[in-house]
Amino acid sequence: MTIKLIAIGKTDHKQLESLIAEYIKRLGFYVKFDFEIIPDIKNAKNLSEAQQKDKEGKLILNKITTSDVVILLDENGKQYDSVGFSELLQKHMNSGIKQLIFVIGGPYGFSQEVYHRANGKLSLSKMTFSHQMIRLFFIEQLYRGFTILRNEPYHHR
């Protein structure tokens, strides 16, 4: 199985990029992982919130096939502790799917079309984080989930 993270907009903090790269490297020991960044919408300031979500939604949906399982990182999604998240990963790996895609939307969230296509929603916290920080937090939790599944000492139970 491949796990893919799709995010809108580039990260402009070198320190975050470095940490994200470190956890992506670590993930390579456990799973095939792809991180795809969709460039920010041009002239977004001239678009309404709905127009921006619609344009971003079309770009997101172009990256997804019908056989992919898609989980949106959304403030209204289900919350897990790290062990519960690792169990969710194991469940998807056991199901035989080819690709599990997690998506971080733009500043206004997702279009209705993206919500309709999604197979689920995941919230990392009730708190709000920047779209750049959430990338690092999610990838670290993904790594942590695999170390839990392998009973490795990274996660102290």
Automatic annotation (TrEMBL):
<keyword id="KW-0963">Cytoplasm</keyword>
<dbReference type="InterPro" id="IPR029028">
    <property type="entry name" value="Alpha/beta_knot_MTases"/>
</dbReference>
<keyword id="KW-0698">rRNA processing</keyword>
<keyword id="KW-0489">Methyltransferase</keyword>
<feature type="binding site">
    <location>
        <begin position="124"/>
        <end position="129"/>
    </location>
    <ligand>
        <name>S-adenosyl-L-methionine</name>
    </ligand>
</feature>
<feature type="binding site">
    <location>
        <position position="73"/>
    </location>
    <ligand>
        <name>S-adenosyl-L-methionine</name>
    </ligand>
</feature>
<protein>
    <recommendedName>
        <fullName>Ribosomal RNA large subunit methyltransferase H</fullName>
        <ecNumber>2.1.1.177</ecNumber>
    </recommendedName>
</protein>
<dbReference type="InterPro" id="IPR003742">
    <property type="entry name" value="RlmH-like"/>
</dbReference>
<keyword id="KW-0808">Transferase</keyword>
<comment type="similarity">
    <text>Belongs to the RNA methyltransferase RlmH family.</text>
</comment>
<dbReference type="InterPro" id="IPR029026">
    <property type="entry name" value="tRNA_m1G_MTases_N"/>
</dbReference>
<comment type="function">
    <text>Specifically methylates the pseudouridine at position 1915 (m3Psi1915) in 23S rRNA.</text>
</comment>
<keyword id="KW-0949">S-adenosyl-L-methionine</keyword>
<feature type="binding site">
    <location>
        <position position="105"/>
    </location>
    <ligand>
        <name>S-adenosyl-L-methionine</name>
    </ligand>
</feature>
<dbReference type="Pfam" id="PF02590">
    <property type="entry name" value="SPOUT_MTase"/>
</dbReference>
<comment type="subunit">
    <text>Homodimer.</text>
</comment>
